[in-house]
Amino acid sequence: MFEAGPHLDAAAFRSLDPALVQILDVREPWEYDRAHLSGALLIPLGDLADRVGELDPNRPLAAYCHHGMRSLQALRFLKGAGFTDLAHLAGGIDAYSRLDPSVPRY
Length: 106
Description:
By secondary structure, the protein is α/β, with parallel strands linked by helices. It is built from five helices and five strands. A five-stranded parallel β-sheet has the order 1-5-4-2-3. Strand 2, helix 2 (29-34) and strand 3 form a beta-alpha-beta unit. The protein starts with 6 loop residues before the first strand and ends in a 7-residue tail after the last helix.
């Protein structure tokens, strides 16, 4: 699904359908409470190894964090766990909130 590469800009990320793509938020709960994307599953990066079973390795997955670094780490881990169709939000939710002002910046 992500033929253009693993780095999606905010506009491409916004067009993802959570019914087709697993949207993974790897930030901390307090960050999720401040701002999150509809349909996202919150699994903080530090919990991902213990909770990877909550994700389907046969479905596309797109991750995001605050600025894009933790989501890249999540992709590396998930690739090692057998996931193949992976992408992340370049610039994180901060970039997304610049496109969609209904998502608060922090």
